[in-house]
Design brief:
about 400 residues; 7-stranded parallel sheet; two-stranded parallel ribbon; 16 helices; elongated
């Protein structure tokens, strides 16, 4: 401790908080009090009146994402709050990809801190470049990206191929132009892929077709973290694409809105949507980048077992306490309303004891979970109901005679 290292020092505690309501600070103080490490710090609010923090139980990350979107739109519509009144915190930007997809579809403007936006990721841009040229064969930026993605095609050759394509668009069909510009097996393969996607009507199917054709090359190019991170992004992209009726709308709304301008051309730069007020957007940040941020409404995602603390932290009391401090900082970003979400599936999944060495014997995900024994008077807890009702028998029995079986031929 500091007093032990500097015996003649005097410690002044800064315990008065001018940001958060006392209800938010009560929950934050409780989190520190549960620690085996004495923090000897208890914040007091200078503000009077407030609401209890909310703990919202969800079944999966998609239900969580849609609930968060509903909450923000409700606040925007009925409570006269701006988008910038909202701060969403996650352990990683990777975890927030489902939320970003929902925000894009529901036209909620956002920016990200502490990581790359979902639609800005290089592997997503690679696949989307194919969709962009199907949508608009004059998109030179997309052509260059897609062509240089092909094995053995560098920027110089790609530029020559592009020149031939642009000169002949409108004169010949794109598949024919591609075969003439790239004689041989590669040109034929790309021409067939273009033609297949161009014939398809379902945008989600277009994404799947493009992915099937490009998966091996994508896996090799991003082999360092393909299985751990990038591969799982494509089902999310497909789900997002399926919600658009046409490829043009998917490209225009989901990908190119608010794009930067380079040499007079649209560049796939950001996935946020344009608004009249450029600064009015939700902030999505990692919890590790949260210090210095604040908002009227703060939503901390997935405050679940195995996340707080992380399963990787269980070997070390120092690592566990670092996770506790990270969550404490995240919670105290809220000015007036704090919302924590929790995955109900993770609660039942963690109650399996794990024996650890180095002084943490029998420490497991369940016993280490930060919200264990959470007092009811500190939060308002709710569970998001599934849109599907419980299975039940039909009210009136049908009169179909099944005694002779059924013919499915």
């Amino acid at each position: 401790m500091f007093k032990e290292r500097v015996p003649d020092s005097e410690v002044f505690k800064l315990e008065k908080n001018y940001r958060s309501t006392q209800e938010i600070l009560d929950l934050s103080n409780w989190l520190l009090e549960k620690s085996p490490v004495p923090y000897s710090k208890k914040l007091r609010s200078s503000r009077e009146g407030g609401e209890l923090p909310k703990l919202v139980n969800v079944s999966d990350e998609w239900q969580e994402a849609n609930w968060v979107a509903d909450e923000i739109l409700k606040n925007f519509t009925h409570e006269d709050r701006t988008f910038s009144d909202h701060l969403v915190l996650a352990r990683s930007q990777y975890y927030s990809k489902s939320l970003q997809a929902v925000f894009i579809r529901r036209k909620i403007p956002y920016v990200t801190y502490g990581g790359r936006k979902f639609m800005q990721a290089a592997h997503i841009k690679d696949l989307v470049s194919l969709l962009r040229i199907v949508n608009n064969p004059y998109d030179e930026i997309a052509w260059i990206r897609f062509l240089t993605f092909q094995e053995g095609v560098g920027e110089v050759r790609a530029s020559r191929i592009l020149q031939h394509i642009i000169e002949n668009v409108g004169k010949e069909a794109i598949p024919e132009i591609l075969q003439n510009a790239m004689p041989g097996e590669d040109g034929t393969k790309i021409a067939k892929l273009y033609e297949t996607i161009h014939r398809q009507k379902d945008v989600g199917q277009m994404v799947e077709t493009a992915y099937e054709a490009m998966a091996l090359r994508l896996a090799f190019r991003y082999r360092k973290d393909w299985n751990e991170k990038r591969k799982a992004d494509f089902p999310v992209l497909k789900l997002l694409a399926k919600s658009y009726p046409t490829l043009g709308e998917f490209i225009g709304e989901g990908l190119l809105d608010n794009s930067e301008n380079m040499n007079g051309l649209n560049v796939l730069n950001e996935s946020k949507l344009d608004t009249d007020e450029k600064k009015d957007h939700v902030i999505i940040s990692t919890v590790h980048s949260a210090k210095g941020l604040e908002a009227e409404v703060c939503i901390v995602l997935n405050v679940s077992p195995k996340a707080y603390p992380s399963s990787r932290s269980l070997d070390s009391i120092d690592a566990i306490e670092e996770d506790r401090r990270v969550l404490y900082v995240a919670m105290t970003r809220a000015k007036s309303r704090l919302i924590l979400t929790r995955n109900t599936a993770s609660i039942s999944a963690v109650y399996q004891s794990r024996t650890r060495d180095n002084g943490l014997e029998n420490r497991d995900d369940a016993s280490s979970y930060f919200l264990n024994e959470l007092p009811e008077n500190l939060v308002e807890q709710s569970t998001v109901e599934s849109k599907f009702g419980k299975v039940k028998d039909v009210g009136t029995p049908n009169k179909i005679d099944l005694s002779s079986g059924m013919d499915f031929s």
